[in-house]
Amino acid sequence: xxxxxxxxGTIPPPARPRASDYQTWVDKVRPVFVEIARxxxxxxxxxxxxxxNLEDPPLPKTHxxxxxxxxxxxxxxxxxxxxxTERPGGNHxxxxxxxxxxxxxxxxxx
Length: 110
What we know:
The protein has helices spanning 22-39, 45-51, 60-73, 102-105; strands spanning 77-84, 94-100.
């Protein structure tokens, strides 16, 4: 398969694999975010997806945000700051930074 260089001549990174079923994807990635939340580490969803080589959901532009907000509604994570995205092609847009809630760090939420 031939890869088309970008306008500046660089080769874009390979596309992240994409899941075909949303609920199956949630079942795979939620334990990773539970694990991270228990550490108390600050993170963006992209950082975790990139570090753990997680596949994208069927509709990445909407499913990632909905998933992360569901984790917040469930009391697992909380918003703590804003930062610039590290996502390729993100053009330094602003993203939320999260961390595990006290309940998550104490293992009371999963």
